[in-house]
Amino acid sequence: MQKAMLDMSSEMEFLRKTCSMLPICNLASIRFFRRMSSRQRRDVSVKSSYLIAKTPNENTIALTSKNIWGKEKLVINGSYDAYPWISSRESYMLDADEDEYGGVIIRPECLPQTADAFATILQSSLFHWKLQGKKGVWLRLPLDQAEFVPVAVKEGFKYHHAEQTYLMLTYWIPEGPCMLPANASHQVGVGGFVLNHRNEVLVVQEKHHYSFEDVWKLPTGFILENEEIFNGAVREVKEETGIDTEFLEVIAFRHVHHVAFEKSDLFFICMLKPLSTQIVVDELEIQAAKWMPLAEFVRQPCIQEDNMFKKIIDICIARLGKCYCGLTAHQVISKFDSRSSTLYYNVVEPEDYSCQVS
Amino acid sequence: MQKAMLDMSSEMEFLRKTCSMLPICNLASIRFFRRMSSRQRRDVSVKSSYLIAKTPNENTIALTSKNIWGKEKLVINGSYDAYPWISSRESYMLDADEDEYGGVIIRPECLPQTADAFATILQSSLFHWKLQGKKGVWLRLPLDQAEFVPVAVKEGFKYHHAEQTYLMLTYWIPEGPCMLPANASHQVGVGGFVLNHRNEVLVVQEKHHYSFEDVWKLPTGFILENEEIFNGAVREVKEETGIDTEFLEVIAFRHVHHVAFEKSDLFFICMLKPLSTQIVVDELEIQAAKWMPLAEFVRQPCIQEDNMFKKIIDICIARLGKCYCGLTAHQVISKFDSRSSTLYYNVVEPEDYSCQVS
């Protein structure tokens, strides 16, 4: 938990710096990031439990409101004695922070010890958040509190996303469609086009593809968590072939949908400059690797017979002939952002192109 | 479940067509996609339960193997009678398919009815998969079987990813680090640079940002699930401002890490051509929208004082002067792929640039 607190603290620092990136960037992500971080901002956020105690005429609302739990739940009958588990109501609310969209974020560090206690306090809390007109409720359950998952689902929570050690659930209170932001939507892959001074391209044959064992392809792979595209391409080439390279440009990228887990895939084709020649094959994933004459690589039927591959190779060849300019990577540390942020854009060299300003 | 079967069937068709995209594309995603789809490929995959029955000398292995459940679990004592729940062992195995990496994918449609029954059969299945030397175990639990989640976690499963209606858990059997592929790593945002014939740029002020209420920014947002980048940019501009546009180019993209839920963010800056002039503000998200003289937009201190924003605007202006070429979107339907697949690349117009082939 201590690490989580530290992470959140550094996220907050990032947030403060990022929030000033207003004129161009995607504020939705920043806004949501702020919301998810707000549970640590005790100085600026107001705890919902505090608000509940301060809501005017709350008793009246609670006593006259229609039961929103359904028939199986206890019915409000004009007295708090109808809630046998509530002695002091405020102490039976889950500790949570408000977000700026009218929702609440339950503090995972303040959850009760047992599933029964969690069920009781979750019901009580939801009841009050509904009366308060709250919208989204965020519940992050660590792996070691998995027994709380069915409790939350029974109360109407749905899954939002999961990482190895926690599950995020959400509950959308208002009528109408859920307006909460979606989880991550894409995986990102990279492919390296590496040509040596002999006009040979670095190619591999992967294992686990016995039906395509004669096909030579570019080294490819997924980028790692929070890895830069330009680093990922260099790393994948190094891992699969042992060749050191230097990133030059993103030549093109491909966007395709409904791939693993129904997510989308962005695949960046990168031009890399070789810095070594000696191939060392990664025996875990790669069957073979070699330097292959470019003409021979292009002549492979699976490239010649396919519009997409042919186009990509045409682009790479055009780039070699300086008839094409890809996107170079630039560290663009914003005034308010000390984190790694890379802007990929196209630098037209004056010596290559005659710029015609209209 | 029927829908899931249909989805899987269409995924398989996609797979067959995609698998031939070998020479360039990211095979890892295709491979994994194949694996996750394999539970429907009864014609080509071998059920693990069938394999178990056929494993030679299995009894010997089971009787002499060290107990891998730990002290709390039943100890193997030389007789199957030590497993009181096992009458016919094969019938107490979870139905699962092998994947091509030596792992198994449990069939969610064949799970037992109760958590107790699930606990029993999961223990039994894990025991045999361990003896068989299996690697990764994939378990997809629908929302309405949330009571199985703590059972699986107790047996050592961890969370992999979740969507609204299901949770995917995994168990990595071998010693050493887990080699299973990660879940989705990125969210994707778009921003629209829309300039009219009067040299005015389309700008908005967002709600929920009271401390920045004087700042005018480009319309931005996340792309929807499985949406094209070029469609997402046009849609966001339409939703926020009511202006119809036509996608021209991706001008640049920004890559930043540790944003919402610790995921990374890819943000594509798109140049769009306006097709209408009448602004209609989205009152839910947008405070105000207007056509702002480009010079006035650029003069805003938050752009002038920030390297990144200034660079992006410089690029947009260079593009207007035909001193820059962005990436255009091309449908590149591969011979074996009937799904939507978009390749973004840079088309250098001969009339704009003098190509110097080296």
UniProtKB/TrEMBL annotation, chains A, B:
Residues 185-314 form the Nudix hydrolase domain. Keywords: Hydrolase, Metal-binding. Gene3D superfamilies: 3.40.630.30, Nucleoside Triphosphate Pyrophosphohydrolase. One of its GO terms (molecular function) is NAD binding. The keyword ATP-binding does not apply. InterPro entries: NUDIX_hydrolase-like_dom_sf (IPR015797), Nudix_hydrolase6-like (IPR003293), NUDIX_hydrolase_CS (IPR020084), NUDIX_hydrolase_dom (IPR000086), Pre-Nudix (IPR040618). It holds the Pfam family Nudix_hydro. Belongs to the Nudix hydrolase family. This is Nudix hydrolase 8. It comes from Dendrobium catenatum. The lineage of its organism: Eukaryota, Viridiplantae, Streptophyta, Embryophyta, Tracheophyta. The gene is NUDT8.
